[in-house]
Predict the structure.
Amino acid sequence: MAGRVAGKKIFVTGAAQGLGAAIARVVAAEGAKVALADINQGGVEALARDLNTQHGAGAAFAYALDVTREEQWIATLEAANAAMGGISGLVNNAGVAGGKGGVEEMELETFRKVMSVNVDSVFLGAKHAIKYLAQNQPGSIVNISSIAGLIASWNTPAYNASKAAVWLLSKNIALYCAKKGLDVRSNSIHPTFIDTPILDPLRGMFGKDEAEAKLARQVPLGRIGKPDDIALAGLYLLSDESRFVTGAELKVDGGISAM
Ligand SMILES: NC(=O)c1ccc[n+]([C@@H]2O[C@H](COP(=O)([O-])OP(=O)(O)OC[C@H]3O[C@@H](n4cnc5c(N)ncnc54)[C@H](O)[C@@H]3O)[C@@H](O)[C@H]2O)c1
């Protein structure tokens, strides 16, 4: 049976661990080729080896990429396009949680660093990948925002601002591609707390069980999410099942934003 993304060629950033790795695993299992990009080169190489063992040689390719660096984006997309025989999907997933503290306490340098990793990455990825997606229509861009891009907290100014920017930039990209007459969609996913290493600082502060229980108490469904909860949303947006969905935000948040 053909997979849900059979024949697709998908470029995933921040793919060494967490949500990026989960998305890569799910789409590879559903028939796509994947290009795995991350500043953690060892991490993406290990995942590529694993996926090539599971799905056959040529299923996955690994690249060192710092998503804040334009010249690296250009070179890596060119290499991935050659390796996979095209690019039809882009997942802008790499991101950092950023410093905690009120707006008066946060250093400008911290704010800029978070904006750079979380927002410049989406701008640069779209800016340089659209030409490849245009050659492989229908194309799909999936940007991993956060519920924190829709709902603020008092102590995460950089993360809130960056994820809100990803939300609207996704819509801007959707309208730009449509205006150009391209069948290239752009959507954002908004997870709440998901069980990945991004939660480790909190686990360090309160201990694993108490940290996860604290987070779970804020979620109407009473639990934190699993990486596959986000990967399956990504799979839908990367597949042709979502062919009429663009400029949308998909909240995968256990009900938090309904309150
Ligand atoms: N896990 C959650 O609770 C949660 C909730 C909402 C949104 N998100 C978002 O999901 C995305 C993935 O988060 P995660 O939980 O998997 O985090 P994670 O920390 O486990 O993984 C992030 C990955 O991004 C990579 N990365 C960081 N900076 C990079 C850079 N400059 N260039 C290239 N790669 C870089 C890291 O090496 C790492 O492999 C992020 O954008 C995050 O903001 C996560």
The first strand starts at residue 9 and ends at 13. The mean pLDDT is 97. Residues 9-258 form a domain with the Rossmann fold fold (CATH 3.40.50.720).
